[in-house]
Design goal:
Shape: elongated
Helix content: over 70%
Number of strands: 0
Distance between the termini: 30 Å
Radius of gyration: 20 Å
Strand content: under 5%
Order of helices and strands: HHHHHHH
């Protein structure tokens, strides 16, 4: 039986753990379980599907960037003997970095969709704000402000999970949207 109380615990602690380098993966898994609980509680599979798309695309984008940095680092030995090659390395690195950032931007768009649905169904608007800050942080990732926005989004994400109620009131969520349509 899915519960928001379980999702609050898993997601809140997962969001805190994912703020740190050494515990990021554990926090990510905990947030994944939390969103699964929320999706099951709300009976909306799309929430989990969007979150999974976000996770997969962000992992792929990070791997593309990591591969670009590894490739550039591997080619640095050639630059030592031939300084003219450094421009080719930077051009290659920029294109791969741009491709990785574009893939991550699409992934964050899915994250925002998932968080917007959670915010509208649970009434915890902090999810929507965190999703928006993640999106803007990814857009401005090439500038320092992007990293600051992502850090702020991570803090708001933890606050959003901890702000989940244990149960939704009777008139909220899908029941509320059904009555308002009539």
């Amino acid at each position: 039986m899915a519960s928001l109380k379980t999702a609050r615990t898993w997601g809140g602690f997962g969001a805190v753990l994912s703020m740190f380098y050494f515990t990021y993966f554990l926090g990510f898994i905990m947030k994944l379980f939390a969103v699964k609980e929320i999706s099951a509680y709300l009976k909306k599979e799309q929430v989990m599907k969007d979150y999974l798309w976000a996770a997969m695309l962000n992992i792929i984008g990070n791997l593309v960037m990591l591969g670009a940095f590894y490739s550039a680092w591997d080619q640095m030995q050639d630059v030592i003997g031939n300084p003219e090659e450094i421009n080719a390395i930077f051009r290659s690195l920029n294109w791969w970095f741009f491709l990785g950032a574009l893939i991550m931007l699409i992934g964050v768009w899915f994250l925002r969709r998932s968080y917007d649905t959670i915010a509208s169904e649970t009434g915890v608007k902090t999810f929507s704000t965190a999703g928006l800050l993640y999106l803007w942080g990814t857009v401005f990732i090439f500038f320092f402000i992007g990293y600051l926005l992502i850090v702020a989004a991570a803090v708001l994400e933890a606050m959003a999970f901890f702000g989940l109620p244990e149960e939704l009131p009777e008139g909220s969520g899908e029941a509320q949207s059904d009555t308002s349509a009539q």
